Amino acid sequence: VIASVDVRREPRGVLVDNEGQTAWVSHLVGAPLTRIDGINGASPQAQTVSLAPSPLRAPVGKVLDASLGYAIVASPDGKRLYAPRHALGAQGVRNWYGAPTVDVLELPSQRSPVPPRRSNILAAGRENASFKDLLKMHGQIPFVEPGPMVQPRAAVYLKRTRTILVAAEGTDQLVEVDARSPEPGLIARNARDLGQNMDVPHGVHEGCAAPSGVAVSEDELTAYVFCRASYDVVAQPLGPGVSSTIRLAEDPQGKAFEKGRRMFYATGDIGMSGGLGCAGCHPEGRDDGHTWHEVKSPETGQKIFVAEQHAIGIEEKPSGFPRQTQMLAGRLGDPGPYGWHAQAPTLEDRAKEGFALHRWDGAGPADLDNATSRLRARALAPFLRGGLVPPPRDERPLTEVEERGRQLFVGDGTGCATCHLPEKGYTNRAAYPLKPLPTRPTFADEEDLSFKTPGLAFVAGTPPYYHDGSAPTLEALIEWNNDRMGRTSHLSKAERAALVAFLKTL
Ligand code: HEC
Ligand code: HEC
Question: Backbone phi, then psi, for 122, in 5-degree steps?
């Protein structure tokens, strides 16, 4: 290691500028990018650069939240950066989950090329609008469906056509967008199908499931795509011609994980996903850092998740209960119940509940308790438990301060370990009616105030905290606790810091 710098949560894509001095970093969680200057020197410096997700589809005056920032590419002259990702709360037709986006940052100004929008009106009847049409919409929200670029995972810039190819993990497609557009993700030029042989009962492709890496030949006439859930490489002609596929390996964890691994990423079947796959909110089995709204579907009245309450009506009063996404990797070993209200007795039940929640029209319990849903839930469960890789952990003895924190945690003074059982992943999996937290803006009050004790494994890496995402850091959580959960108000400043230091080792 030559140098290391601290950056925001979940750094993923890295791009080095043409001079080799500055690196740009995308993040799985949150909208800003990180800029690291002086990477060729001894002391690189990181700073946060804001980049508004899908500005043409955000409510006027609001900056959306983002997730799934894996890829980051630049134009050959280095004057434009492109960040394919997911814009949480982007508006459009049935955009319950937001929309995939490619956000542009112009350099050196670090500004967006998108002119500010003036109206929150949905511009109807422009389903296939060209970009010229969009500019004539007088700042209205383009009336477009979320588009095929679901879970954008990898990208490459094509000089020949001045387009960007994006590997869409959710739809098993290679989507091409116009690099000259101020908001390239809004209109896909084309979407090439990579997925082969639909396994109908499981709702997944047998071949090329979850494309996640892309490279192009020097003449830019062939794209090579790696598909992470089926371990294939596809050679995809970008002009005429047919693709060819090589399977690199069978599933390294064996047959029991094959289907579940594909299902975790896939969005091709309405019975399992109405737009976003498991990996869309639990990327890599972690979490998107977002607090979803549990609302009633405007079409069927069934419970569904929407990314922001404005997805169900722009001027609507605050609505929906807060549901902060939970991390799954390394946390599902123990038996249930699952869910913030401990509402699902088994992992299979929670998966089935999800099949109904993650779509625009919802689905009743009767629609879900069928052979297909049961088959899918059974195939998912072993992969969720054994196939998701937990973050790496430093294996080292606790420092003196951390050890002090551990003693406080397990001691009677705080009572933390009465609910967060150390030998059970730091949860007793029971729901408690704790004193209500103040209602957050845009969310509604909930009658059922019993929430499940969450497991605390890897808790340092999963902010924000609580079912409503109201505590931004562990420091804030302890500071604001006021004996709501266990007892902390008697602790000195140093003891609180020690308790936090211990939590960060879990
Ligand atoms: C739209 C975002 C979204 C999608 C898509 C999604 N989840 Fe979740 N998931 C959440 C949120 C938010 C929670 C917390 C709410 C709850 O527990 O009821 C959650 C909770 C869970 C839990 C409970 C964890 C625990 O410890 O109690 C499991 C298990 C789970 N999801 C599995 C899945 C699976 C499997 C899929 C794909 C079929 C999936 N999720 C797709 C957002 C999502
Ligand atoms: C009565 C049982 C109980 C006790 C005692 C308790 N907790 Fe909790 N803990 C919970 C519940 C329930 C939640 C979820 C509350 C919510 O979301 O509103 C929670 C949430 C948390 C979270 C947030 C985790 C996340 O991923 O959102 C942390 C961190 C935490 N507790 C640490 C502690 C510490 C430290 C103590 C001791 C001072 C403690 N807890 C004592 C039940 C308890």
Answer: -80, 120
Is the predicted pLDDT of residue 458 greater than 90, yes or no?
yes
Whose tokens are 């004996």? That residue is 483
Q: How far is CA 292 from CA 89, 246, 325, 427, 467, in A?
A: 10, 39, 7, 23, 10
Percent over 70 (pLDDT), the chain: 93
Separation CA 378–CA 369 (nearest Å): 12
Contacts of 366 (CB under 8 A, 6+ apart): none
Across 36-47, average pLDDT: 94
Closest ligand 2 atom, CA of 474? Answer: 29
Q: Which ligand is nearest to the CA of 470?
A: 2
Going 94 to 96 to 100 to 103, the CA torsion angle's sign is: positive
Burial code (b: 16+ CB inside 10 Å, e: under 16) for 167-193 equals bbbbbbbbbbbbbebbbbbbbbeebbe
Radius of gyration of the chain measured on its C-alpha atoms: 23
pLDDT digit string, tens, across residues 123-134: 655 555 555 565
Q: Which of 343, 483, 485, 499 to mutate to test the pocket of ligand 2 (most atoms within 8 A of CB)?
A: 485
Which residue from 328, 347, 360 has its CB within 8 A of the most atoms of ligand 1, so it is best to mutate?
Answer: 328
* Cβ(347)–Cβ(384) below 8 Å: yes
Residue 238 CB partners (closer than 8 Å, separation 6+): 158, 165, 216, 220, 221, 222, 223
Calculate how far, in angstroms, residue 495's C-alpha sits from the geometric centre of ligand 1: 34
- Residue 141 — pLDDT band, cuts 50, 70, 90? low
Residue type, 440: R
User: Looking at residue 366, what is its pLDDT?
Assistant: 64
Q: What is the C-alpha to C-alpha distance for residues 391 and 286, in angstroms, rounded to an integer?
A: 9
- pLDDT tens digit string along 414-454? 999 999 999 999 999 999 898 889 999 889 888 899 999 99
pLDDT in tens, 367-399: 777 899 999 999 999 999 999 999 988 889 999
* Distance in Å, CA 219 to ligand 1 centroid: 43
- Residue 46 near residue 5 (C-beta atoms within 8 A): yes
327 lines ligand 2 (CB under 6 A): no
How many Å lie between the centroid of ligand 1 and the Cα of residue 94?
A: 20
Best mutation site among 350, 360, 388 for ligand 1 pocket (most ligand atoms within 8 Å of CB) = 350
Residue nearest to atom 19 of ligand 2 (CA): 453
- Specify the pLDDT at position 263: 97
Indicate the pLDDT class of residue 95, thresholds 50, 70 and 90: confident
Q: Is the CB of 306 under 6 A from ligand 1?
A: no
Report which bound ligand comes closest to the CA of 419: 2
The CA-based dihedral angle spanning residues 250, 255, 260, 264, taken in that order and rounded to the nearest 10 degrees: -10
Instruction: Compute the average pLDDT of residues 467-475.
Output: 96
